[in-house]
Design brief:
heterodimer; A: mainly alpha; 74% helix; globular; disordered N terminus; B: alpha/beta; Rossmann fold; 6-stranded mixed beta sheet; 31% helix; disordered C terminus; transmembrane helix (chain A)
């Protein structure tokens, strides 16, 4: 019997890199569309986080906003917004796809699991950064916070974003293996919130707690951002060890997240775990 | 790194050889004492353009087999090729040979519209947007979803959602379609639409279709060939007509014009005579050919005009149940031509 293939089956042109870029963009586009569909939930989540932050700030300030404190803790709030968005929506998205069977459909693609997860993370970055930018603008303008937006802050800023996304990637990767990841994600998010510098800068923690906090996602990044925004040069964050450890922290989280995702997808393929368990 | 898009997979659709080859395929879950063999040493070859029904009770291994073909479950033993591409070693080529609607899953993104889903799944297989759009338009039009293409799939009826899942599976026009319980949970009308589409895919588009369903009348109507799986093993694999013929019963139905009016005496024990419109029907529930000829001779002697003689054919459901309960008496596959049984 002859085959009737009137429509194209697949592209034959284009380099591997171009194809992979298109596949990443496709995943990102899907992620952004899905985010837009649940935008009301995203807005409510951001608002709750902002209210929590405001309440804590008033509590610490004895019923007043202490501006110098807010200047140092606001970057941590924005990092928490990004990290918690990446973690909750990343792991929630994977869990939803396992339940809905779309994770299986997505595997029937020339796009490798690592390409697909990169696309997903890019979408989460868009969602998290959009929320962070809005909240940052509201608080900075609303309370008249005075920031020195020094270009040197860009480097630790970008690394903090990578760190937060690496954290989200790791939790999304664990979701493939651990069905009840939701509770774990919330516990980790609370740790990031309390020890990441959102309540008080980690530099005021007792030594042992400060050392612990430096392992918490985004904490080192926020510390480096605050240092540079206070007018210190980037070299200062390097010499005090914050920046190099931030590079290592972000790199390890991203690498660990990618490897965990690939290993867990393979495990799921062996054990039939790509569909509801 | 695996080579990607070095040749047009469409050419595989006309490639010589089988569309699907399973060779010694097996899957076991767990280890040691707790190991459970879901699929055992299955060898199967499905030629291009054939519709094969994969039947079996719950837990027989149908879905595991389908998911191994899709590359979603890694086999413990054996190999799978799709259009000549090894699923394990040439995955990116192999997966572009197939489209699948899997059991118990949404298969598509309910918060996205039908149009967005088709664009996403087309691009997921490596197509460009300009390549996907005309096909998405055609599929949505043919399936009657064009007017509602921008509504979220979650707002559709169950039947429409399943149509979108079918369309997503077809968006790249793959030569092989895997349908795991595609009519499960659909109402009669929606099931009929999906069934008609499967028939259309096979007859008009020449697709190779692997179909699992518990609705045996659907399998009987659509499948060129039936493979029955029990406890992970294929216990029967024959062309549908041959499978039914092999299980034809020693039950005959003789129709004559007019009534018998006691003209015929000495019918075999168990024979029933029933009026049938203007004629009469003689049912012989357990008769060999000699008995049938004897009855025909009696009817001829009584000047009864013979209308027809037919051997009763069992339904696929009857054959299926018989096979499951008497696996040892299953049809031998050698005479089946295309199929093999381990």
């Amino acid at each position: 019997m002859t085959m009737s293939l009137s429509a194209p089956v697949a592209s034959t042109r284009g380099s591997w890199v171009v194809l992979q870029t298109r596949l990443v963009a496709n995943e990102t586009g899907k992620g952004v569309r899905l985010m837009w569909r649940r935008r009301s939930m995203v807005v409510v989540g951001m608002a709750m986080l902002a209210l929590n932050y405001l309440g804590i700030t008033f509590f610490i300030g004895g019923g007043h906003v202490v501006e110098p404190l807010m200047v140092e803790t606001l970057p941590a709030l924005l990092a928490v917004v990004l990290a918690s968005t990446a973690a909750v929506q990343g792991s929630g998205g994977i869990a939803e796809e396992i339940y809905g069977g779309t994770l299986e459909q997505a595997q029937m693609s020339p796009a490798t699991p690592q390409v697909q997860i990169l696309g997903r993370i890019a979408a989460l970055a868009v969602e998290g950064l959009a929320g962070a930018v809005v909240l940052g603008a509201v608080f900075a303008l609303g309370f008249g916070l005075d920031y020195d937006l020094h270009p040197a802050a860009l480097v630790p800023g970008v690394l903090t974003v990578v760190d937060a996304l690496g954290y989200g990637l790791l939790l999304a990767a664990l979701t493939v293996r651990i069905a009840s990841i939701g509770a774990i994600t919330h516990v980790f998010n609370m740790v990031v919130m309390f020890f990441g510098g959102m309540i008080v800068p980690i530099t005021v923690f007792p030594d042992a707690l400060e050392t612990f906090a430096q392992f918490v996602p985004t904490a080192l990044g926020v510390q480096a951002v605050n240092t540079t925004m206070a007018g210190e040069p980037l070299s200062a964050t390097w010499s005090d060890g914050t920046l190099p450890w931030l590079v290592v922290h972000a790199g390890v989280l991203v690498a660990l997240g990618l490897v965990t995702y690939i290993v867990n997808i393979r495990h799921a393929q062996r054990e039939g775990g790509l569909s509801p368990r | 790194m695996e080579a990607v898009l070095t040749e047009n997979p469409a050419s595989a659709g006309t490639a010589p050889g089988a569309a699907i080859e399973l060779s010694g395929l097996g899957k076991a879950y767990g280890r040691g004492e707790h190991a459970f063999a879901a699929v055992r040493e299955t060898t199967l070859s499905v030629p291009w353009g054939q519709v094969i029904g994969l039947l079996g009770p719950n837990g027989a291994g149908k879905t595991t087999t389908i998911k191994m073909i899709c590359g979603l479950i890694t086999p413990s033993t054996g190999s799978i090729t799709l259009g000549g591409y090894d699923v394990a070693r040439q995955r990116s080529h192999a997966v572009r040979q197939i489209g699948a609607v899997l059991e118990g899953s949404r298969n598509v993104y309910w918060p996205m519209s039908a149009w967005e889903n088709l664009m996403y799944f087309g691009r997921l297989k490596g197509l460009r947007g300009s390549e996907v759009r005309p096909r998405a338009r055609r599929l949505l039009t043919d399936l009657g979803l064009w007017e509602r293409r921008h509504e979220t799939v979650g707002s559709y009826s169950r039947g429409m959602q399943q149509k979108v899942a079918v369309a997503a599976a077809l968006i790249t026009d793959p030569p092989i379609i895997l349908l795991d319980e595609p009519t499960l949970g659909l109402d009669v009308e929606a099931a009929r639409t999906v069934k008609d589409w499967i028939a259309h895919l096979a007859a008009d588009d020449g697709k190779t279709v692997v179909l699992t369903t518990h609705q045996l009348e659907v399998a009987q109507e659509l499948s060129d060939r039936i493979a029955v799986i029990k406890e992970g093993e294929i216990i029967a694999d024959l062309p549908t007509t041959e499978l039914l013929a092999r299980h034809a019963e020693n039950r005959y139905e003789i129709r004559v014009a007019g009534s018998l009016d006691g003209n015929v005496g000495g019918l075999p024990a168990g024979a029933r005579v029933e009026p049938d419109g203007s004629g009469t029907r003689v049912l012989l529930p357990d008769a060999d050919s000699a008995t049938v000829y004897a009855v025909l001779d009696q009817l001829a002697a009584a000047d009864q005009q013979l209308v027809s003689v037919a051997q009763a054919r069992p339904s696929l459901e009857a054959v299926f149940i018989r096979l499951l309960h008497h696996a040892g008496a299953a049809p031998t596959p050698e005479a089946g031509g295309e199929g093999t049984t381990p």
